[in-house]
């Protein structure tokens, strides 16, 4: 085909839309805009070539003049580039027009030189033909809309420097639309439904790219393609992704001009359509979709059986093994509760659409399954209440995967985050046609619930077991506990890699280089500073709701792990152990540095003594005692003349984990913002009032010096929960009963005594049972329901030395493992599963007064010999503390809180070798 072409004909049409800056107001007249038009006319030039006479050809000067006269006419106004192109084609191909020679067809490219902000050019390109006296029509090739070199500054790349510094990325987008533009008519430049608002799309792409922080250009390009397709669907709701005739192709080029020194740029180019995102753009259900329910044969996900509900309960499994895995999962969970924002382009979503997280599992690190040559995964599961249908919920999950940064790759391959809908009430759902249900090789783009592979995945079953062990699989008719038992029984010792539970600690203050929030409505998600590991039982107990007690896992079945050390820094003048020693900044920093050098894993800073009779301190004064120390550590402002310190030690102290020993929301918030990573609350988010009764919730009394904050237990719980949830920090929740020296009567739990007739929780003292029930009730209130703290962020403390007799404290030390055992608690007739099952524990017995009381006791003489008692100061109880710490290690404590870090570090190392 011979072509006669006029390249980049310069025109100045008045465009009603698409100028670089929008009109100041509706009455403003559109300004002329610089536009370049390239005309390509098919024409057989063989006669002209043979005769060298112009009469056999097309006069391109006439073509250009005809177009210029039409476009630059004084009163001519064009609504869009498409409208301008249609007018030019009218000039060139209208059979009755006299402005130009008769043509059979023409290809036009109309380029706006000064387009909306951030991009170099925008253009529209199409080809039209006419036959005889018929009007011109576009060819089947359709219309191409282009945005060229849209520049964004963003985080992208795998190199450490690329994760800290934004770099320029140039994005070019081509939208190729062919066939029908909607269900009502053929593709046409004169059909406004096919027009593209370049300014709106540029803004969508610019904002989406600028807020992203992908590791690869491939993921970025896929994200931009998805955002473009979403935008096209949102502005033209008559388009249906299931209609292949209206399925545009989107080509995205993403280039990094500064990636390679000796190259202009590195670039990725992809072509995508709605069919490439089947989980996001689903067609309406076919008649083959199967949804059934078996309410009579399964247990509910929640305790609401028999109640009429306007919502459903679903179980969702999450996993991540790329980037900051913990940050990815937390971002996904927060985004999940904003379905209207995430799915803003979905017109069929209910106006009152909601998803609420109501329960979470522990968090696990697991070896990759199926495709083993990839990083380890972090896995968890959650329960949500929602009014979304299963298919809409799946669309939301896939949209969040894209939002957080999942890179489409091989099945079961690496991903920033993966969300699977595992259970939905008691329903059985399969969107595949009946003929395609013989195997599991065709699940892409389909929904099958319960998840068809859940019974072969420990990283799904174990998290579900944390929340709903007695839920019965609607098809297999086995409980989650039974499925996990069977799976682990099939796992051979040679190939089995135990899953480890993990606790992530966030980094504060949040670095300025941290990726921006993918959804502005959610709280900022902090990056991860570090994380702790501890074992999960290899074999779950065979939990049965009718059994009196549950099997206990022996220590020999657990993988090796170490005990973490928490050093104690009291910045108070009246602490029972070391008051006034570290209440000045230099001495506090000196202790902090010594703790780090001696092997402490975390530093617990307290500014309010909880010893009996301690003076009341205002929240403002407590903040003044604590926050300057936290800030000095994070800023590296170490004014410690007496301490020798290396550069490596200074850096280690700056990065050391910090816990806040406080029960006050104001102190917790200020301390975290200054750089703390954890909250340690001796009242477990309920404040110092005991017992927590309706009268105490009506307002605090003045019977204790600790009750001057004018907060009720309910207010403490609400505020502390909100802070822990927003900042995603681990929390230590301790069993206590108000004043540490009071409320030591546990006779209400005597049914649990080994001498009682009850077989519930055999060999457990009343104090162990009391901790499980009393602290368990608080933990349930904090973890379960809307706004709950993630289960994996909770560490429990049985409260050694708080509201317990000497024998009660010894009961705790010798049996603290039973506090979190998978046992039945409660008196006969009211048995239930231990609410503290599986939680990691902190034991804090260091220098406590009960140790001093034991040392004061005269030993009974045996054969005329016995030790005499002696009185001790708290700092003279180091060896007594060592015995208590060794007992804590034997009982599988995750962390021990100590004052003498070096000495207790030695104890822990030996005890770990003995017991673990």
Automatic annotation (TrEMBL):
<dbReference type="InterPro" id="IPR000489">
    <property type="entry name" value="Pterin-binding_dom"/>
</dbReference>
<dbReference type="InterPro" id="IPR045031">
    <property type="entry name" value="DHP_synth-like"/>
</dbReference>
<dbReference type="GO" id="GO:0004150">
    <property type="term" value="F:dihydroneopterin aldolase activity"/>
</dbReference>
<dbReference type="Pfam" id="PF02152">
    <property type="entry name" value="FolB"/>
</dbReference>
<keyword id="KW-0289">Folate biosynthesis</keyword>
<dbReference type="InterPro" id="IPR011005">
    <property type="entry name" value="Dihydropteroate_synth-like_sf"/>
</dbReference>
<dbReference type="Pfam" id="PF01288">
    <property type="entry name" value="HPPK"/>
</dbReference>
<feature type="domain" description="Pterin-binding">
    <location>
        <begin position="563"/>
        <end position="909"/>
    </location>
</feature>
<dbReference type="GO" id="GO:0046656">
    <property type="term" value="P:folic acid biosynthetic process"/>
</dbReference>
<protein>
    <recommendedName>
        <fullName>2-amino-4-hydroxy-6-hydroxymethyldihydropteridine diphosphokinase</fullName>
        <ecNumber>2.7.6.3</ecNumber>
    </recommendedName>
</protein>
<feature type="region of interest" description="Disordered">
    <location>
        <begin position="15"/>
        <end position="34"/>
    </location>
</feature>
<dbReference type="Pfam" id="PF00809">
    <property type="entry name" value="Pterin_bind"/>
</dbReference>
<comment type="pathway">
    <text>Cofactor biosynthesis; tetrahydrofolate biosynthesis; 2-amino-4-hydroxy-6-hydroxymethyl-7,8-dihydropteridine diphosphate from 7,8-dihydroneopterin triphosphate: step 4/4.</text>
</comment>
<dbReference type="GO" id="GO:0005524">
    <property type="term" value="F:ATP binding"/>
</dbReference>
<dbReference type="GO" id="GO:0016301">
    <property type="term" value="F:kinase activity"/>
</dbReference>
<keyword id="KW-0067">ATP-binding</keyword>
<comment type="similarity">
    <text>In the N-terminal section; belongs to the DHNA family.</text>
</comment>
<keyword id="KW-0547">Nucleotide-binding</keyword>
<feature type="compositionally biased region" description="Low complexity">
    <location>
        <begin position="692"/>
        <end position="705"/>
    </location>
</feature>
<feature type="region of interest" description="Disordered">
    <location>
        <begin position="691"/>
        <end position="711"/>
    </location>
</feature>
<keyword id="KW-0418">Kinase</keyword>
<keyword id="KW-0808">Transferase</keyword>
<dbReference type="InterPro" id="IPR006157">
    <property type="entry name" value="FolB_dom"/>
</dbReference>
<dbReference type="InterPro" id="IPR000550">
    <property type="entry name" value="Hppk"/>
</dbReference>
<dbReference type="InterPro" id="IPR043133">
    <property type="entry name" value="GTP-CH-I_C/QueF"/>
</dbReference>
<dbReference type="GO" id="GO:0046654">
    <property type="term" value="P:tetrahydrofolate biosynthetic process"/>
</dbReference>
<dbReference type="GO" id="GO:0003848">
    <property type="term" value="F:2-amino-4-hydroxy-6-hydroxymethyldihydropteridine diphosphokinase activity"/>
</dbReference>
<dbReference type="GO" id="GO:0004156">
    <property type="term" value="F:dihydropteroate synthase activity"/>
</dbReference>
<dbReference type="GO" id="GO:0005740">
    <property type="term" value="C:mitochondrial envelope"/>
</dbReference>
<dbReference type="InterPro" id="IPR035907">
    <property type="entry name" value="Hppk_sf"/>
</dbReference>
């Amino acid at each position: 085909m011979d072509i006669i072409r006029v390249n980049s004909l310069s025109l100045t049409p008045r465009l009603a839309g698409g100028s670089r800056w929008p009109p100041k107001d509706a009455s403003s007249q559109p300004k002329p805009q610089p536009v370049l038009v390239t005309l390509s006319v098919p024409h057989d030039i063989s006669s002209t070539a043979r005769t060298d006479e112009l009469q056999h050809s097309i006069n391109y000067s006439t073509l250009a003049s005809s177009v210029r006269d039409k476009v630059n006419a004084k009163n001519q106004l064009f609504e869009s580039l498409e409208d301008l192109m249609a007018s030019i084609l009218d000039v060139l191909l209208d059979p009755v027009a006299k402005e130009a020679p008769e043509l059979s067809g023409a290809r036009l490219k109309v380029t706006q030189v000064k387009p909306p902000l951030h991009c170099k050019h925008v253009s529209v390109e199409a080809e039209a033909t006419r036959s005889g006296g018929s009007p011109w029509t576009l060819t089947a090739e359709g219309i191409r809309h282009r945005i060229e070199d849209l520049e964004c500054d963003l985080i992208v790349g795998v190199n450490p420097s690329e994760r800290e510094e934004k770099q320029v990325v140039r994005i070019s987008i081509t939208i190729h639309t062919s066939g029908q533009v909607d269900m009502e008519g053929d593709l046409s430049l004169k059909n406004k439904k096919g027009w593209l608002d370049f300014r709106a799309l540029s803004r969508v792409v610019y904002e989406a790219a600028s807020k992203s922080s992908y590791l690869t250009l491939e993921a970025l390009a896929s994200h931009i393609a998805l955002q473009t397709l979403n935008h096209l669907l949102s502005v033209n709701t008559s388009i249906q992704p299931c209609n292949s005739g209206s399925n545009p192709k989107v080509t995205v080029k993403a280039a990094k001009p500064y990636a390679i020194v000796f190259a202009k740029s590195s670039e990725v180019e992809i072509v995508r359509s709605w069919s490439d995102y089947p989980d996001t753009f689903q067609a309406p259900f076919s008649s083959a979709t199967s949804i059934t329910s078996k309410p009579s044969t399964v247990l509910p996900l929640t305790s609401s059986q028999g109640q009429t509900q306007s919502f459903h309960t679903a179980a969702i499994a999450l996993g991540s093994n790329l980037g900051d895995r913990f940050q990815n999962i937390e971002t996904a969970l927060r985004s999940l509760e904003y379905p209207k924002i995430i799915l803003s382009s979905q017109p069929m979503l209910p106006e009152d659409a909601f998803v609420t997280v109501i329960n979470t599992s522990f968090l696990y690190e697991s070896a990759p399954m199926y495709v083993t040559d990839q990083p380890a995964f972090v896995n968890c599961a959650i329960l949500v209440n929602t009014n979304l249908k299963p298919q809409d919920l799946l669309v939301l999950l896939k949209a969040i995967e894209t939002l957080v940064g999942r890179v489409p790759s091989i099945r079961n391959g690496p991903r920033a985050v993966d969300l699977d809908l595992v259970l939905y009430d008691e329903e059985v759902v399969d969107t595949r046609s009946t003929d395609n249900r013989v195997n599991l090789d065709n699940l892409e783009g389909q929904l099958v619930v319960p998840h068809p592979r859940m019974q072969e995945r420990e990283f799904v079953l174990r998290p579900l077991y944390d929340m709903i062990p007695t839920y019965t699989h609607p098809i297999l008719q086995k409980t989650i506990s039974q499925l996990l038992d069977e799976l682990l029984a099939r796992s051979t010792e040679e190939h089995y890699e135990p899953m480890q539970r993990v606790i992530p600690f966030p980094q504060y203050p949040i670095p300025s280089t941290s990726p921006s929030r993918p959804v502005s409505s959610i709280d900022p998600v902090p990056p991860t500073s570090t994380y702790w590991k501890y074992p999960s039982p290899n074999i779950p107990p065979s939990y049965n709701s009718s059994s009196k007690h549950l099997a206990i896992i022996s220590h020999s079945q657990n993988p090796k792990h170490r005990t973490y050390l928490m050093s104690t820094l009291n910045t108070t003048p009246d602490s029972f152990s070391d008051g006034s020693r570290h209440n000045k900044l230099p001495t506090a920093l000196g202790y902090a540095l010594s703790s780090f050098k001696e092997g402490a894993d975390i530093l617990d800073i307290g500014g309010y003594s909880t010893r009996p009779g301690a003076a009341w301190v205002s929240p403002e004064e407590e903040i003044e005692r604590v926050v300057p120390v936290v800030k000095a550590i994070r800023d590296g402002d170490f004014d410690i003349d007496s301490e020798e310190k290396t550069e490596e030690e200074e850096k280690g102290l700056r990065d050391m984990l910090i816990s806040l020993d406080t029960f006050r929301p104001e102190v917790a918030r200020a301390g975290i913002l200054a750089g703390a990573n954890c909250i340690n609350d001796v009242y477990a988010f309920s404040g110092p009032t005991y017992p927590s009764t309706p009268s105490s919730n009506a307002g605090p009394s003045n019977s204790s010096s600790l009750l001057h904050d004018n907060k009720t237990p309910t207010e403490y719980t609400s505020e502390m929960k909100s802070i822990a949830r927003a900042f995603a920090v681990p929390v230590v929740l301790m069993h206590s009963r108000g004043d540490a020296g009071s409320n030591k009567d546990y006779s209400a739990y005597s049914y649990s005594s080994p001498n009682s007739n009850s077989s519930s929780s055999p060999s457990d003292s009343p104090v162990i049972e009391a901790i499980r029930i009393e602290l368990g009730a608080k933990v349930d209130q904090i973890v379960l329901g809307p706004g709950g703290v993630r289960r994996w962020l909770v560490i429990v403390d049985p409260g050694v030395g708080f509201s317990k007799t000497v024998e009660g404290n010894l009961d705790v030390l010798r049996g603290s493992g039973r506090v979190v055992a998978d046992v039945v608690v409660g008196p006969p007739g009211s048995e239930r599963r231990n609410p503290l099952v599986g939680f990691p524990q902190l034991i804090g017995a260091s220098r406590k007064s009960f140790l001093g009381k034991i040392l004061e006791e005269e030993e009974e003489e045996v054969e005329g010999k016995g030790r005499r008692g002696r009185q001790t100061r708290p700092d003279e109880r180091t060896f007594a503390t060592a015995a208590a710490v060794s007992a804590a290690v034997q009982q599988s404590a995750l962390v021990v809180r100590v004052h003498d870090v070096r000495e207790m570090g030695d104890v822990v190392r030996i005890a770990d070798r003995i017991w673990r």
